[in-house]
UniProtKB/TrEMBL annotation:
Domain of life: Bacteria
Keyword Ion transport annotated: no
Family: Belongs to the class-III pyridoxal-phosphate-dependent aminotransferase family.
PROSITE patterns cross-referenced by the UniProt entry: AA_TRANSFER_CLASS_3
Keywords recorded for this protein, A-Z: Aminotransferase, Pyridoxal phosphate, Transferase
One function term, GO molecular function aspect: transaminase activity
Pfam families for this protein: Aminotran_3 (PF00202)
Protein name in the entry: Aspartate aminotransferase family protein
GO cellular component, one term: cytosol
Record Gene3D superfamilies: Aspartate Aminotransferase, domain 1, Type I PLP-dependent aspartate aminotransferase-like (Major domain)
Cofactor(s) essential for the protein: pyridoxal 5'-phosphate
């Protein structure tokens, strides 16, 4: 039966971010159930989920109150839209709850189904904001290399991964500057000097394009999918200064950083950023329902509301009752428990300290992290920082080994990436690090190091 399911999957299902030919030949893992922080494939293989799904199940897989909230909502009002002055109770209540947990200047929310659509929404909001002010030429958007902002055309254009760009007929008014990836881009520089230098590329790009033509800068507080790129402390204050002084809107993509990942509710708080727009998705429903959106600051809504007129933008499922009910139940857990504070104060320091020990391992070039996410960079030589193997083969080998040992981790470039659920205890973190350590040993052995 399992073999049959695998064959059907290989025959008919085109998977996201998957080499179709390779999958058709070799297949993969079918997941059939999950509990607490563990996922089980259809062969019964149990794995500790060191990635919280795709950075979304921050509260793990057994949150019955979210399941109940969705079930009750489906029985009460399974669907209605929010177009044309209609609304529904969970969407209204979630909007209010999000306003309550974000900073004071955020008083409005626009709901989407995903982070990608939320970033598209950002671009539409930004262009309407400037058009209403009679400044339509302010349309250029600056993003960063190696960023991931989603997979629609606009989101893929915002993203900075070269592989995605090669496959995308991208938008020509989106430009990319360097990422604050000290280990890869500037390891011979003092980290703070490097952070300032990279931040100032934003100013250079604004000068190049002309300040009156630049609308916004978008970035994740910590670049997640790009490899958990922890910015030097000097980076964000300088970016904020430039955006403020040069009249550029700042968009923080909090799709991964939001809802506790960096130690506070939002990565913007951790890094002292004051964005004008904030993208969220993923953990807003603990991953149990598809939901994303944009927190829109008063600076933007003052223009939108004062000028009036329809904002011609929306999705059939914007503010879907079942999805927003899941969001509401998730926020209730986060607000009424001490999960975010406990993760920040007790679990994350243990997680980061245990991972840091791995820097002594012969194939580990750098361990970096903040709060409940981290990356372990693999090298063949610690001094030259030479890759472990051509392309990303070393990290792929290590990831596959970890998976077989019972740890779900992800590989990005030459790094192993982890974002365990915030509900992990220190013993579970120890189990995660021990499995990763075994996988590193096996990988070193495989490459004769
Ligand atoms: N923005 C960031 C920072 C993300 O990490 C992702 C997804 O990983 C997205 C946007 C896109 O979100 P979605 O996959 O929900 O469209």
């Amino acid at each position: 039966n399992n073999g049959n399911l695998q064959r059907l999957d290989q025959s008919h299902h085109l998977h996201p971010f998957t080499d179709f030919r390779d999958y058709a030949q070799h297949g993969g893992r079918i997941f059939s159930r999950a509990e607490h922080i563990y996922i089980y494939d259809s062969n019964g293989h149990k794995m500790l989920d060191g990635m919280s799904g795709l950075w979304c199940c921050n509260l793990g897989y057994s949150q019955q109150s979210i399941v109940d909230a969705v079930t009750e909502q489906m029985q009460q009002l399974p669907y209605y839209n929010n177009f044309f002055q209609c609304s529904n109770q969970p969407a209204i209540e979630l909007a209010k709850a999000l306003v309550d947990v974000t900073e004071d200047r955020f008083n409005h929310v626009f709901f989407t189904n995903s982070g990608s659509e939320a970033n598209d929404t950002n671009l539409r909001l930004v262009s309407r904001y400037y058009q209403l002010q009679g400044r339509p030429e302010k349309k250029h958007i600056i993003s960063r290399k190696n960023a991931y902002h989603g997979s629609t055309i606009a989101a893929a254009s915002l993203g900075g991964m070269s592989g995605m760009h090669e496959q995308t007929n991208g938008l020509d008014y989106i430009h990319h500057i360097e990422q604050p990836h000290w280990f890869e881009v500037g390891p011979d520089e003092d980290p703070d000097a490097f952070g300032l230098r990279v931040a100032r590329q934003l100013e250079d790009k604004i000068d190049e394009l002309g300040e009156s033509n630049v609308a916004a800068f978008i970035a994740e507080p910590v670049q997640g999918a790009g490899g958990v790129i922890i910015p030097p402390d000097s980076y964000w204050p300088e970016v904020q200064r430039i955006c403020d002084e040069r009249d550029i809107l700042l968009i923080a993509d909090e799709v991964i950083c939001g809802f506790g990942r960096t130690g506070q509710w939002f990565g913007s708080q951790t890094y002292g950023i004051k964005p004008d727009l904030m993208t969220f998705a993923k953990a807003v429903t603990n991953g149990y329902q598809p939901l994303g959106g944009v927190m829109v600051s008063d600076k933007i809504t003052d223009v939108l509301l004062n000028h009036g007129g329809e904002f011609s933008h929306g999705l059939t499922y914007s503010g879907h009752p079942a999805a927003t009910a899941a969001g509401l139940a998730t926020l209730k857990i986060l607000r009424e428990s001490n999960i975010i504070a406990n993760a920040a104060d007790n679990v994350a320091p243990h997680f980061q300290a245990r991972l840091k020990e791995l820097e002594a391992h012969p194939i580990v070039g750098q361990v970096r992290g903040r709060g409940m996410f981290a990356a372990v960079e693999l090298v063949s030589d610690k001094t030259s920082r030479e890759k472990l193997a051509p392309e990303s083969a070393g990290a792929v080998f290590c990831r596959n080994t970890a998976n077989n040992l019972g740890l779900m981790v992800r590989q990005t470039g030459n790094a192993m990436i982890m974002a365990p659920p915030l509900i992990c205890n220190t013993g579970e973190i120890d189990a995660l690090v021990d499995m990763l350590s075994q996988a590193l040993d096996a990988t070193a052995k495989h490459y004769g190091i």
